[in-house]
Amino acid sequence: MTKTQNSKPYDLEERTPQFAKNVRAFVKKLPKTISNIEDIKQLVRASGSVGSNYIEANEALGKKDFLLRIKICRKEAKESRYWLRLIDTDAKSDLENERKDLENEATELMNIFGSILRKTE
């Protein structure tokens, strides 16, 4: 597998499901407060949707369909970042660090999909 200098895969078909898996592993460790339970549901959906829409983009029926799917990927990455910001880690530094890492990955994915859009449009 090809990796970047910071050892993240170039291949978005690998990177996007890894993001979703990392989110799922993270949420299992969180305190089960009423707000976290609701936010976790949204976060899990959005994080999984990034990769599923990327796969759809790669199977697009044309340029217009491809652009729509990539826009959805960017939107879902942005939504994932939003839910990550709302998650309550109960001020536990290890969970807070993991939350920040996932938030950074969501931001990087947003930027990558934004770049793809600019180059394709």
Total count of domains: 1
CATH fold-level topology: de novo design (two linked rop proteins)
Classified in CATH, the superfamily is 23S rRNA-intervening sequence
Based on CA atoms alone, the radius of gyration comes out at 15 Å
Describe this structure in words.
The protein is mainly α. It has a single domain, classed as 23S rRNA-intervening sequence (de novo design (two linked rop proteins), Up-down Bundle), CATH 1.20.1440.60. It has helices at residues 12-27, 34-58, 63-86, 93-120. Helix 1 runs antiparallel to helix 4 and helix 3 runs antiparallel to helix 4. The longest helix is centred in the C-terminal third of the chain and has 28 residues, at 93-120. 31% of the residues are buried.
Q: Which characteristics define this entry?
A:
4 helices, disordered N terminus, 121 residues, de novo design (two linked rop proteins), elongated, 77% helix, mainly alpha
Brief overview, please?
The protein has 121 residues and is an all-alpha fold. The protein contains 4 helices and no strands. It has one domain: 23S rRNA-intervening sequence (de novo design (two linked rop proteins), Up-down Bundle).
List the helices and strands and how they pair.
Layout: H1 12-27, H2 34-58, H3 63-86, H4 93-120
Helix pairs in contact: 1-2, 1-4, 2-3, 3-4
